Amino acid sequence: MKRLLGLVLFYLSWLLWGVILIVPFMLVELDRLAVLTTSLIVAAEICFALSILLLGKAFYLAIKTRLKSYWQYCRGERKSE
């Protein structure tokens, strides 16, 4: 159950970051837009931190390794395998 909750929170954090891309196109006042964007950022970060706490250090290191290799590929430092 702990692993499932951690994965749900992890995917929810990515989903919240994706929703931030839609926010500028909403027809609301600027002050509400700022509050909504800030709330989404805070919620996404809290979900991510909780997911890392639930899933453990091994999951964190796996994500970090995958993102690092992807970043190196994007920068041209590493050839595709």
Helix and strand arrangement:
Elements: H1 2-20, H2 30-55, H3 57-75
Largest β sheet strand count, sense and barrel closure? none
The average pLDDT score comes to 88
Briefly note the structural class of the backbone: mainly alpha
Helix content: over 70%
Rg measurement, Å? 16 Å
Would you report the number of β strands? 0
Distance between the termini: 36 Å
Indicate the proportion of strand residues.
under 5%
Uncertain stretches of 5 or more adjacent residues: none
Query: Could you spell the SSE succession in H and E letters?
Result: HHH
Shape verdict? flat
Helices, by number, come to 3
Which key terms come to mind for this protein?
single chain, 81 residues, mainly alpha, 3 helices, flat
Describe this structure in words.
It is a single chain. With 81 residues, the protein is mostly helical. The protein has a domain at 2-55. The protein contains three helices and no strands.
Please summarize what this structure is:
The protein is mostly helical and 81 residues long.
